[in-house]
């Protein structure tokens, strides 16, 4: 009885079972999504006075206020070199770096933030404050491993500045300014934001000159991450203006990068906030107005999150939940296949039973010697035929099985006729 019911309503049963499974899995998935804790993304920036730190802190606040499914934690560091070490070790998922830093193959570009410039601060006693006239001078440069140190190394290579030609001294900013004020060094070199508080406070408080970095176009041929910029008159102060005139120098972009495996939606969201919420960001840093999508040939490949934002490719429901839907589909296919095998097995068993009954009738026809018995076998045969035809109509046996049985019952019909002729002689 149960098998008959299953065979008759097999399609409906399959649909109901698959529907129940789909609803159950969807409910479980939504339940787990609600329980899942917000993912924390850590981003490494420069020190707390840097514009990169203030900008990313503002982004983190926006993410927190608007209740995204992840949080952004901003940590301050000593600069690009430390940031890359943290990123490469997996301790952070995003970081800010100078564009001239060497990165690992799995580092991806998320956004261009703003531009740092090369600062050369000369003592007033230096007659021609220019990098080309730096021979014999003592120059304070950033510590080894920092972005500023690498930038100075590139300048040193281009101008062929040997240690016999200049006297570089690796110092922190505090040490460099102290040595400068005590006449122990002649020049301070730093790569910082044009309006960095340390630079502005120092230049406006002590007599000094800004030196130019010439041959900017030529340098950019060898180091494409650098480009010529002008340190504008009055950058540090308006009255009296410092510097007193526009000074040619070099600029290098500050980039936001991420590990290749940082979630695409996270990078896409951060990129979108950086580009669309500038009004909020400039309240903490005027340089936030310079945030832009990287242009031209970049040395670091774009992160998929940035690509998705720029291309405006909004993933649909199926793209967002591809893995989950693939799991459901696999389960449904497995269950559907199992149920189909069960139904087909029942059909085959029913057909085998009919074939056994037909074979029994055939044997009895061959052995009988009585016309009355032959009539009974004929009636039994007709009843069997009617039953199998009814089952074929209801889908209880396959069409291939019905065709095979039709061939067999025709042979029995012929056998019954021949037996009847034989017995009536």
Write up what this structure looks like:
This protein starts with a helix and ends with a helix. It is 52% helix and 17% strand. Strands 1, 2, 3, 4, 5, 6, 7, 8, 9 and 12 form a ten-stranded mixed sheet that branches. The chain has a two-stranded antiparallel ribbon with strand order 10-11. With 425 residues, it is an alpha/beta fold. The chain has two domains: 221 residues, Periplasmic binding protein-like II (D-Maltodextrin-Binding Protein, domain 2), CATH 3.40.190.10; 80 residues. The longest helix is centred in the C-terminal third of the chain and has 46 residues. The mean pLDDT is 81. Helix 13 runs antiparallel to helix 14. The protein has 15 helices and twelve strands.
Give the helix/strand layout.
Elements: H1 2-8, H2 10-35, E1 39-45, H3 51-65, E2 70-76, H4 80-89, E3 94-98, E4 107-122, E5 138-141, H5 147-158, E6 167-170, H6 173-181, E7 187-192, H7 197-205, E8 209-210, H8 216-222, E9 226-231, E10 237-238, E11 241-242, E12 247-259, H9 264-276, H10 278-281, H11 304-311, H12 317-320, H13 322-367, H14 371-394, H15 399-423
Parallel strand pairs: 1-2, 1-3, 5-6, 5-7
Antiparallel strand pairs: 3-12, 4-7, 4-8, 4-12, 9-12, 10-11
Helix pairs in contact: 2-13, 9-11, 13-14, 13-15, 14-15
Report a brief summary of the structure:
The protein is of the alpha/beta class and about 425 residues long. The chain has helices at about 1-10, 10-35, 50-65, 80-90, 145-160, 175-180, 195-205, 215-220, 265-275, 280, 305-310, 315-320, 320-365, 370-395, 400-425, and strands spanning about 40-45, 70-75, 95-100, 105-120, 140, 165-170, 185-190, 210, 225-230, 235-240, 240, 245-260. The protein folds into two domains: about 95-315, 3-Layer(aba) Sandwich (D-Maltodextrin-Binding Protein, domain 2); about 345-425.
